[in-house]
Amino acid sequence: MKIVELTTHRIAITNEEADLLNQFDDETPTLAKGKMTERQQIMANQLVNKDILLRKNENGQLIYKRSTR
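Above: the chain sequence. Below: its structure as tokens.
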């Protein structure tokens, strides 16, 4: 279990979610849903629900990126 600290509060995430979150860095600030495994897509949606990731539709493709809050 990991703790992610946002500007105003802390959120507990699983180790799997933390591994996925670590893929978002300066070189790859976004990940396309089509390039993720089914398990990664589920975890990404869980992180969206926890307000850690943002999900956007860009040119008909779902893109995930870190929340800036």
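The helical segments are 15-21, 38-49.
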